[in-house]
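2024-03-11 09:14:02 DEBUG pipeline.ingest accepted 1 chain
2024-03-11 09:14:02 DEBUG pipeline.ingest length=298
2024-03-11 09:14:03 DEBUG pipeline.predict start
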Amino acid sequence: ALSLTTATAQAAEPDRNTPAPMTAAQIIAAAPASAWRTPDPDNLLYMQLPGGLVVIELAPQFAPRHVANIRQLARQGFWDGLSVYRVQDNFVAQFGDVAGDDPAIARPLGAAATALPAEFEVPSSSVAFTALPDPDGWSDAAGFVDGFAAARDHQSATTWMAHCYGMVGAGRNNAPDSSQGAELYVVIGQAPRNLDRNMSAVGRVIHGIEHLSALPRGPEPMGFYPQRSQDTPIASIQLASSLAPDQRLPLQVLRTDSPAFAAATEARRNRRDAFYQRPAGHIDLCNIPLPSRLASAP
């Protein structure tokens, strides 16, 4: 496995004659073009809310059956006119058909599959894993796969997407294979890693997370709005590939297997600016931001 450790990990404390080390923000700003990637438009969902645009990058390498169903639902306009009907403080925002469990009034799934297998983890041999140098309380190793926060178990040789801030998963009932990708949730609070390998994770928000995380919270115990007038309407959810190129955001994300990402992570792991008196020497998987940007016009 690759590693995010860098030569700076063992750097001595700077003295007055040593230039100040670059901050993570400076490292990311200086990252070369080769450190950035443009997501496949067939893996991008554009979710239009009253507050603005949310962009979700899908992860077929972790949940291929769910992603295929989500693409089909988006092509059909399944979510257009539905809503965000649950916002639980320090947990998730959930959207889809609030009447989805009632066959008499649920919105039809059309050509989408009505039953999917659970996709909780994948064989480690099927993905390229970039490991963090620090231990993870939820797994044998934590790191990244193609820009998605992930973790792995050595004994079972499996890897899964971690429930970090911004992760998108498919809601289900008690049966592991009861999700369809029609009811989705986004993590908007402290990472609920206990859900790892218990839910089918399908992607992450790469732009506009504030339009979900700033929504009014629903009441205890689970954040479901009691009145439909409290829901946040979804104008549309579309695949970027269904839009003309000039209608797509020129989004790029920093490659998590790049030297720039490794250096930025180390700069956060051991902050050495004037404010920090004691570098931590440790970083948690879900405390590592995954940078994105709007590419400059050529």
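2024-03-11 09:14:41 DEBUG pipeline.report Helices lie at 24-29, 64-76, 210-213, 259-269.
2024-03-11 09:14:41 DEBUG pipeline.predict end
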